[in-house]
Amino acid sequence: MEDLIQRARHGDSPAFVELFEHCKQPMWKAAMAVLGNVDDAADALQETAVKAWRAMPGFAAQSSVDTWLMRILLRTCFDMRRRGAHETPFTVVTGGAGRCECASSAESMLDEAHVLMGRERIPDQDEAMDVRAAVRQLCDDDRLLLTLFYVNDFPTRQIAGILNISEGAVRTRLVRARERFRTIYCGASRQDDVEQEGRVAK
Questions:
Q1: Structural domain range at position 15
Q2: Most CB atoms within 10 A, among 154, 169, 200, 201?
């Protein structure tokens, strides 16, 4: 990795491409969490690649390269939102590649739900839909934080570096985000149970 960084800093474009590809998956998921749209997320990644390539010679390695790239990506995503990028549910996909990425994220979110609820992991399509619906109702900050922690599996220290906040603040926000997710998800689950009981009664 260090060799790739040094080569990229000195203008080696193939090295930069390899470096960017290595970090692309978590960035894609974070972009989807913030922007909620496959096309916008793809545009954000492309814009991030251009910005990072231009800034690469000045990369001082004060943080890891994936943290550095994620910061650029999130700034790009938030700029896009401010410029009026339209908001659509982040589970909507239009292409084959996007569908694979979203399916993977949905699986991770379902795992997350079982972690939060203390349940054994049992694949269930209806439950996965409930999880996605609950995640959609979260605010952008909560959705991003849970994506970084559960989907991308970033440690709290790295998330703190990405968001430029203290590690303690990350932990506090995670607790609150999990609680908000739990409230929404449990509410949806209870409603489903009531509807199911009603159908059985009929």
A1: 1-85
A2: 154
